[in-house]
Amino acid sequence: RTLKLPSDGDGTILTTNSSVGKILQVKQTVKTDTASYSNTSFAKVTGFSSTITTTGSNKVLVRVMLHFGTDAGRACQFRLARTTSGSSENDELIIGDASSNRTRASMGGLFTTLNWMNASESIEFLDSPSAGTHEYYVKARADDSSYPVYINRNYRFNDGAYASVLASVITIMEVAA
Predict the structure, then answer these.
(1) Which residues pair with 31 in a beta bridge?
(2) Where are the extended beta strands (E) located within the chain?
(3) Looking at the DSSP assignment, which residues form a beta bridge with residue 36?
(4) Partners of 47 in beta bridges
(5) pLDDT confidence of 10, banded at 50, 70, 90?
(6) Average pLDDT score over residue span 153-170
(7) pTM for this structure?
């Protein structure tokens, strides 16, 4: 850039290289197998977590792409969660406010799609976890134990070339603060 004086421009001139906002590390977990959850309370999705060790006050950018299936007219919900090593905490991140009997969730709801269709949800969240080792993961619940939610497949799951087995991804990035 060229700065001409006198000028009516304002701003701050950086005198050192700053790392603020830079991505310091990236971790990713890809879940390619299928799973079913008939719990009516939230349960951790097996094999679908990613762990990162951060320093200082750096942030963590979390991205999730989740494929699933449930029966037509049934509800299923998901929560994005974090556990910090050495702590018994189980922080559920970015969930909706309490509202009567409604389920607080990060993703999901009532699905009106047909039971042979695949559904997907995605979420992105910038977390401020403090320094330490953090595990990020997704928890799932079905609204009725007789109608499970299936990860990476549809509800019906017929054995034909038209049916899909999908993959879900969780990516976490340490962002310099």
Answers:
(1) 168
(2) 23-31, 35-37, 43-54, 59-69, 74-84, 91-93, 107-111, 119-127, 132-142, 149-151, 168-175
(3) 150
(4) none
(5) low
(6) 93
(7) 0.86
